[in-house]
Design goal:
By secondary structure, the chain is mostly beta strands. The protein has one domain (2-57, 65-83). It is built from one helix and six strands. The protein has one helix spanning 8-17, and strands at residues 2-4, 20-25, 31-37, 59-64, 69-74, 78-83. The protein has a six-stranded antiparallel beta sheet with strand order 1-6-2-3-4-5, with helices on one face. Strand 4 and strand 5 form a beta hairpin. The radius of gyration is 12 Å and the shape is globular. The N and C termini lie close together (5 Å).
């Protein structure tokens, strides 16, 4: 398993095309590996109006395919995409 460094813009573009496996550092310092997408036809749930982290605060939302729900990550904490 190799990790390829990537920018947030590149990651979001890839997620609009389909699921992407990527890693980021969580607030508590642990590493989270997620399979996320932004492709509308793959999102099985709609946002329920929970906490939204505005773009200007440096957070990006995504739909977690494995957890079947929306999540956010800090753009500055992206480690990279997982390549097999």
């Amino acid at each position: 398993m190799a990790i390829k460094k990537i920018t947030n813009t590149e990651l979001r573009k890839m997620m609009k095309e389909g699921p992407v496996t990527f890693q980021y550092k969580k607030k508590d310092g642990s590493i989270r590996q997620a399979v996320g997408t932004l492709r509308d036809d793959l999102i099985t749930k709609k946002s329920n109006g929970g906490i939204c982290y505005p773009k200007e605060q440096g957070y990006s939302p995504y739909f977690d395919v494995e957890k079947d729900g929306f999540r956010v990550y800090a753009e500055s904490q992206i480690i990279g995409i997982v390549e097999s």
